[in-house]
Design a protein that fits this description.
Helix content is 42%, strand content 20%. It contains seven helices and six strands, in the order βαβαββββααααα. Strands 1-2-6-5-4-3 form a six-stranded mixed beta sheet, covered by helices on one side.
Length: 223
């Protein structure tokens, strides 16, 4: 289970442990003072990795400690803590965050544990944010209907995003059009306008028509 600092509290973490589920959750100092007090004055195990971004070499510094209390009190849940600091050669820190988990953290596992939690942001940005702001119009309050209409519309939105993702993998014409048009919204608006006034034999026929109208070369090995 992955989540923000909002979820990093003992009642939820204890429930996850009781149900034999593990977790990697963001853990901020201001909301976990007791945990961070246990980190003070300790020579923490450290792993340093150099990563090339294509333009600059970054230094990824991991620190960790196993067996720290999530909160104050004798009934505190004991967790394992780690942090990542990303810095540039000029000393500028581009990212810093910390996490807790029930996985045992070692020099060999700390990078994978941090990567798992950071991947959640990738899912949020490339999935949830796309559905909300890139033309699918899936808002937080998708409150249509009185029974099941809201869940039906949300399901159709998510299914459309799934099909579009598959098309981006497999359909050369779709990929070319998406690369040429500036935004998803533009693509959707073009589809809506064309299919409102014109008839197409198939999806492939529609894409071919759009490519020809934009004077783009039809990809080879496509029907």
């Amino acid at each position: 289970m992955l989540g923000d600092d909002l979820y990093c509290h003992q009642p939820l973490c204890q429930q996850l442990v009781d149900h034999q589920l593990n977790f990697i959750l963001v853990c901020r100092p201001d909301s976990h003072p007791t945990l961070y007090e246990h980190l003070e004055g300790i020579d923490l195990p450290t792993v340093i990795v150099k990563r090339w971004t294509g333009t600059v070499e970054e230094t990824w510094t991991y620190r960790y400690l196993n067996g720290v209390p999530l909160r104050d009190g004798e009934d505190a849940l004991w967790v394992n803590w780690c942090e990542l600091t990303i810095s540039r050669p000029d000393g500028r820190v581009t990212d810093h965050n910390a996490f807790v988990t029930h996985y045992l953290i070692t020099d060999d596992t700390v990078t994978e544990i941090v990567q798992a939690e950071r991947t959640r942001w990738k899912v949020e940005n490339e999935n949830n944010n796309t559905l909300k702001t890139k033309g699918y119009n899936l808002e937080h309050n998708f409150g249509h209907g009185h029974q099941h209409l809201a869940s039906l519309l949300a399901t159709l939105n998510i299914l459309s995003f799934l099909f579009h993702t598959v098309l981006d993998w497999l359909d050369q014409k779709y990929r070319l059009l998406r690369a040429h048009l500036p935004t998803r919204k533009t693509f959707f608006e073009d589809l809506r306008a064309l299919t409102r006034y014109m008839y197409f034999d198939s999806w492939d026929h529609l894409l071919t028509f759009m490519l020809q109208g934009l004077e783009l070369e039809i990809p080879p090995n496509s029907s």
